[in-house]
């Protein structure tokens, strides 16, 4: 009878240990997912938001050059300066494209890229200004409209970063809460394990009918 109780106790101990091992495996997977989620928040959302900010700054400088906002500025190299800003923007866009893009992001980024590459690709300063006519207001207005459209794309991209970031943070919270539940489960298993070991090794046979 004592032998039977001990075998039963050993079986229970084995099951408890297997449950603890399984719990640890699940918790490791959960921690990997949490780590991956926060990495995604940083690389694909926070870093991308800095890309958008840098692009917006350069787009603002392009608009200032096109609009001739500073009358004391030397505009003799304005096309080269605009080209440099656009090249810098395209370099950032290339890095942007290497992140995890949603379908909407890809669409807005593609539209923005087209505007920079095609619509704002100014070949001649005469399109903006001539000595005889001054600033070409009609052409400048067209460029300003394209820049406004590009800014809308950037605003939409920025909104997506916020939305996707909130989704990722919510996902991380779910994983953390689940991990806390598993931690409580582990504590319960350990208590049961202690109780089983107590009855197995410290209670005299015949003083308990637990097994």
UniProtKB/TrEMBL annotation:
Pfam families in the record: 4HB_MCP_1
InterPro entries linked: HlyB_4HB_MCP
Keyword Transmembrane listed: yes
Chemotaxis methyl-accepting receptor HlyB-like 4HB MCP domain span: 5-173
Membrane-crossing segments per the record: 181-202
Taxonomic superkingdom: Bacteria
Keywords noted in UniProt: Membrane, Transmembrane, Transmembrane helix
Protein name: Chemotaxis methyl-accepting receptor HlyB-like 4HB MCP domain-containing protein
């Amino acid at each position: 009878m004592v032998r039977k109780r001990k075998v039963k106790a050993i079986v229970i101990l084995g099951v408890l240990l297997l449950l603890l091992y399984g719990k640890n495996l699940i918790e490791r997977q959960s921690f990997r997912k949490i780590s991956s989620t926060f990495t995604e928040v940083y690389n694909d959302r926070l870093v991308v938001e800095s890309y958008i900010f840098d692009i917006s700054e350069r787009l603002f400088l392009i608009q200032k050059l096109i609009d001739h906002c500073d009358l004391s500025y030397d505009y003799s190299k304005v096309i080269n300066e605009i080209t440099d800003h656009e090249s810098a923007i395209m370099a950032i866009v290339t890095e942007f494209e290497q992140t995890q893009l949603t379908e909407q992001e890809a669409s807005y980024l593609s539209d923005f890229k087209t505007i920079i590459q095609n619509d704002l690709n100014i070949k001649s300063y005469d399109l903006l200004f001539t000595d005889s006519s001054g600033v070409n207001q009609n052409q400048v207005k067209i460029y300003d409209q394209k820049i406004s459209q590009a800014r809308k794309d950037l605003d939409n991209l920025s909104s997506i970063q916020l939305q996707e970031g909130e989704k990722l943070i919510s996902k991380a919270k779910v994983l953390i809460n689940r991990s806390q539940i598993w931690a409580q489960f582990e504590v319960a298993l350990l208590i049961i394990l202690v109780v089983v070991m107590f009855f197995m090794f410290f209670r005299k046979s015949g003083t308990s009918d637990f097994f």
